[in-house]
């Protein structure tokens, strides 16, 4: 399903550290002035935010790997799906709209999701963020970069066969409103249609790393670990 993406994915090469340093220098200039709250941008922190996007279909294993990265490298984990579900449970003005949108297998409006992510980032004392399950669309991506004022440093794409993702979601029994066969199929269709342009965009930007999301949790993490280990030397 993802053969087209595999050919575009970045690899970890001997030039990786040089690329890392170059990217971080770019971030310093990109994030200058992001402290302007009046413009809806994140408050200043002692260190430049280091942002990782996790992309992959439902059941591709992003959440489990995020936990491992948080434990190993000290990131703050922000799950777009969890934030949306929490908003539904809060009975807020946006909650009913979010619930109906998710039930239909559609994408929640970008500004709503970005607003929830932004709030969590502002409240955090951390400067390293894993944003799980976002951006799902080009509109998501553009909205995030416009509202937050920065691009991600790293984008991970979890490449997993569709049948495996369906099996994992149906077996996890976590009581999520969107964990049923009909909704999963809709979500996979939407993901395939809308997320490929995002994946390709970040591949062309040299920020995409494809993870083959088959195997044990530890086996998959061994693909993830070198990426963050290399960046850790620079961002701390």
UniProtKB/TrEMBL annotation:
A ribonucleoside 5'-phosphate binds at residues 85, 106-108, 133-136, 176, 187. Binds 1 Mg(2+) ion per monomer. CMP binds at residue 140. Keywords: ATP-binding, Cytoplasm, Kinase, Nucleotide-binding, Nucleus, Pyrimidine biosynthesis, Transferase. GO terms for molecular function: ATP binding; CMP kinase activity; dCMP kinase activity; UMP kinase activity. The keyword Repressor does not apply. GO terms for biological process: 'de novo' pyrimidine nucleobase biosynthetic process; pyrimidine nucleotide biosynthetic process. Its EC number is 2.7.4.14. It catalyses: dCMP + ATP = dCDP + ADP; UMP + ATP = UDP + ADP; CMP + ATP = CDP + ADP. It is found in: Cytoplasm; Nucleus. ATP binds at residues 59-64, 172, 215. Its cofactor is Mg(2+). InterPro entries: Adenylat/UMP-CMP_kin, Adenylat_kinase_CS, P-loop_NTPase, UMP_CMP_kinase. It comes from the Eukaryota. The keyword Lipid metabolism does not apply. One of its GO terms (cellular component) is nucleus. It is an enzyme of class 2 (transferase). PROSITE patterns: ADENYLATE_KINASE. Consists of three domains, a large central CORE domain and two small peripheral domains, NMPbind and LID, which undergo movements during catalysis. The LID domain closes over the site of phosphoryl transfer upon ATP binding. Assembling and dissambling the active center during each catalytic cycle provides an effective means to prevent ATP hydrolysis. Belongs to the adenylate kinase family. UMP-CMP kinase subfamily. Catalyzes the phosphorylation of pyrimidine nucleoside monophosphates at the expense of ATP. Plays an important role in de novo pyrimidine nucleotide biosynthesis. Has preference for UMP and CMP as phosphate acceptors. Monomer. This is UMP-CMP kinase. It comes from Gossypium mustelinum (Cotton). The lineage of its organism: Eukaryota, Viridiplantae, Streptophyta, Embryophyta, Tracheophyta.
């Amino acid at each position: 399903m993802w053969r087209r993406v595999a050919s575009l994915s970045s690899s970890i090469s001997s030039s990786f550290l040089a690329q890392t340093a170059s990217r971080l220098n770019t971030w310093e200039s990109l994030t200058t002035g992001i402290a302007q709250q009046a413009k809806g941008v994140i408050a200043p922190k002692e260190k430049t935010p280091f942002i990782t996007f996790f992309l992959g279909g439902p059941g591709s294993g992003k959440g489990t790997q995020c936990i491992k990265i948080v434990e190993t490298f000290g990131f703050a984990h922000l799950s777009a799906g969890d934030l949306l579900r929490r908003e539904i449970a809060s009975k807020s003005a946006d909650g009913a709209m979010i619930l109906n949108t998710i039930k239909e297998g559609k994408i929640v409006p970008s500004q709503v999701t970005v607003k929830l992510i932004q709030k969590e980032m502002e409240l955090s004392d951390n400067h390293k963020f894993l944003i799980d399950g976002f951006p799902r669309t080009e509109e998501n991506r553009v909205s995030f970069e416009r509202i937050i004022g920065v691009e991600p440093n790293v984008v991970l794409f979890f490449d997993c066969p569709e049948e495996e993702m369906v099996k994992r979601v149906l077996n996890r029994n976590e009581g999520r409103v969107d964990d049923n066969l009909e909704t999963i199929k809709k979500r996979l269709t939407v993901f395939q249609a809308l997320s490929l342009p995002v994946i390709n965009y970040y591949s062309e930007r040299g920020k995409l790393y494809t993870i083959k999301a088959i195997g044990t949790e530890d086996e998959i993490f061994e693909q993830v670990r070198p990426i963050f280990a290399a960046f850790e030397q620079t961002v701390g």
